[in-house]
Amino acid sequence: MIRTATSDDIPGLAPIWHEAWMAGHAGKVPAPLEAMRTLQSFQDRLGPRIARGDVLVWHNGGPLGFVALNGAELEQLHLATRAHGSGAASQLIRAAEATLHQRGIITAHLICIPDNARALAFYAKHGWREVARGPETVETLAGPFDLLCCRLEKPLAPAPRP
Description:
Elements: E1 2-4, H1 10-25, H2 31-36, H3 39-51, E2 55-59, E3 63-70, E4 73-79, H4 88-102, E5 107-112, H5 117-125, E6 129-138, E7 145-155
Antiparallel strand pairs: 1-2, 2-3, 3-4, 5-7, 6-7
């Protein structure tokens, strides 16, 4: 079941985000950024996203994954290891795309590090295409951090007719 996350979900979602982020990023990003990505940092960063109503949680007897949106950006998509292969990630990305489309977004985007092959393959399978590669500023509790990323985009709706 997919629903909008509430602050009650933070204790279940933060460890999922931390574990999934480490699995996809540890040893692949600069050490200072990796050191900033503590469990507490993920707990602290979830609150504002949930308060905006921009987090959808996949729930089955407890949170198993989530997707966070920010404007036209699919900002985060993470799944508990125990839910890999369940189809939950595909359900989450489709729900995120539908939500963005309902908000009037014509082309959605996301960023992903070039060395996260699993994520890049997942996004490609769902119709996302790399359009650029270069430095992106990512959010940390200590301030902005520049990181080499791939920018992927996906059209969500046909362009309006003139």
